[in-house]
Amino acid sequence: MHRKIALVASAIAGSAAAVALLHYWGRLRQTPELTEESRLSGIRGRWVQAGPYRMFARTAIPTDATATNGFAACPPVILVHGLVVSSRYMEPLALALARWFPVFAPDLPGFGESALCGRWLDLPGLADALHLWLVATGLRPAVLVGNSFGCQILTELAARHPGDVKALVLQGPTADRRARHLSVQIWRALVNGRRERPHSPAAPGRIDYAKAGLLRALATMRIMIRDRIENRLPLVRAPVLVVCGSRDPVSPREWAIEVTARLRCAQLVIIDGGTHTLNYVYPQSLALAIRQFVDALPGEPSGRMEQP
C-alpha cells in the first residue's frame, strides 16, 4: 500500500515538474528581441528579408554624426553566433568593437528571432543564408567573426562565397577532431561553464535554446560533430585570425595550433586566462585582438578613432 502511494506521489510530482518546466520554457520563448538594458547600451535591432528568410540582426554603431563619418573607410564587422544560441550573447563584443567599427550580428534562420518553421538548415544551408543576408544588407566583403560553431559556418561561407569575406576571425573553432563525440563535447562545455562563472552566458543561452527548440538543438549538435572543418580550412583564401583562450577546454590550444597551421594565411593569438566564450566573458580582450588584426590588413588605415 505504502509503495503504491509513493509511486502515485512520485508520478504527481514528476507531472508537476514537467508542467512547471514547460511553463518556464514558454516564458523564455516570449523574451523580447532586445532588453531595455541592451537599448540603453547602444544595441539596435534590424530586420532584413534575405532571400526566403526574414532575419533579425543586432547592430552597434555610434549615433554621433562626427563619429559615424569617421567610420566611412572601416570595413563592417559581422559577428556570427555559435551552436543553437543567437546574436544575443554577442552583445558584449559588439559594444566593445563599436568603438572602432560598425558592427552587425545576425540571427541565422532557426535561431534567436529569425524563425524557421518546420525544418532546419544544414551547414551549407546556414552558410548560404548568411550569404543572402550579406547580399541583402550590402555589407560584403566584410570582416567576419565567429565563435565556436560559428567558425564552422564561416569557413563554409569562405569556401562557397569567397567574395563575401575580407577576413575571418575564428574564435574557439569547433569541433576538435580528437574529441568528436557528443558526450565529450558536453563534458567540455560543462567544465567551461564552471570556469566562466559568474559571468557565464548561460542565461541568454537558455533563452536561445528555448526559442530554437529541442529537435533543432539536437540536429545542430549532430551537424557540428559530423563536420570535418579541417578538410575545408585549406580552401579559405582570406587572411584569418585564430583566437584561443588559454583555459578553453572546448577548443584547446593544441587544436587552435592545428587549425592555424592548416590555413593558407593565418595567425594565432592566445588570450591568457581566456575561456571558450571570449565574446561574452572577455569581450575587451577579444575586441583588441580583432582591432589589431584588422589594422594590419592590406589597405586598412592605422590609428582608428577612439570613442571616449
UniProtKB/TrEMBL annotation:
Pfam families: Abhydrolase_6 (PF12697). Coiled coil: none annotated. Keywords: Hydrolase. GO terms for molecular function: hydrolase activity. InterPro entries: AB_hydrolase_1, AB_hydrolase_fold. Residues 77-283 form the AB hydrolase-1 domain. It comes from the Bacteria. This is Alpha/beta hydrolase. It comes from Paraburkholderia youngii. The lineage of its organism: Bacteria, Pseudomonadati, Pseudomonadota, Betaproteobacteria, Burkholderiales.
